[in-house]
């Protein structure tokens, strides 16, 4: 009786791996990104460094873009905005600046990986889609929710045209400072940005 070839074999179940083993994979990905960049990273290299099979990695993450994004998420590269609700929009946005600054201090040079991967995503549609789904869309929705609460509390007029652009402004400032100045957006920088640009547009008193 003939055996099934790879193209006809039933899909393999995703096996369960321990959190410790998962972190080994993520650390290998981050190390390889630092050593050679996104383009040079391969599933084969991660498998070799962690003494795992390629099939194990593909079962867990489907491919390179998903694995890289998961590794970034595991180290909290997306900024920790969960749970921010100070009771005012200005307070919420200041708390975002504080969370971003704290993340930058903890991650240090590792934060550069986000920028490097973001640049690679412009040339890789699969990576761009994975980044948007796992990181960017979540940040946008979180900030949109803060602004929506501010509108509901009457702090900002619902028809204020600046409401639409708050996520773009804030996330843009987070990401772009390194490109323009070679420095990451810390708490002080983002607070000044909020007070000089975002708050006046929204009609909030700094």
Automatic annotation (TrEMBL):
DNA-binding region: 42-61
Top-rank taxon: Bacteria
Boundaries of every HTH tetR-type domain copy: 19-79
Keywords noted in UniProt: DNA-binding, Transcription, Transcription regulation
InterPro entries per record: HTH-type_TetR-like_transc_reg, HTH_TetR, TetR_C
Family annotation (PANTHER family): HTH-TYPE TRANSCRIPTIONAL REGULATOR RUTR, TETR-FAMILY TRANSCRIPTIONAL REGULATOR
The name this protein goes by in its record: TetR/AcrR family transcriptional regulator
Organism per entry: Streptomyces niphimycinicus
């Amino acid at each position: 009786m003939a055996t099934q070839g790879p193209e006809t074999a039933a899909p393999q179940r995703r096996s369960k791996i321990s959190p410790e083993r998962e972190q080994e994979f993520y650390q290998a990905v981050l190390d390889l990104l630092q050593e050679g960049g996104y383009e040079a990273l391969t599933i084969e290299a991660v498998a070799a460094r962690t003494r795992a099979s390629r099939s194990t990695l593909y079962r867990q993450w489907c491919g390179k873009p998903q694995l890289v994004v998961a590794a970034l998420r595991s180290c909290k590269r997306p900024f920790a905005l969960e749970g921010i609700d100070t009771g005012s929009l200005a307070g919420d946005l200041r708390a975002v600046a504080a969370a971003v600054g704290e993340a930058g201090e903890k991650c240090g040079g590792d934060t550069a990986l986000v920028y490097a991967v973001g640049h690679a995503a412009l040339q890789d549609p699969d990576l761009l889609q994975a980044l948007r789904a796992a990181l960017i869309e979540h940040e946008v929705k979180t900030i949109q929710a803060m602004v929506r609460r501010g509108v509901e509390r009457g702090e900002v007029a619902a028809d204020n045209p600046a409401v639409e652009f708050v996520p773009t402004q804030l996330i843009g400032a987070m990401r772009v400072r390194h490109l323009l100045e070679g420095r990451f957006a810390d708490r002080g920088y983002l607070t000044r940005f909020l007070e000089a640009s975002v708050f006046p547009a929204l009609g909030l008193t700094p």
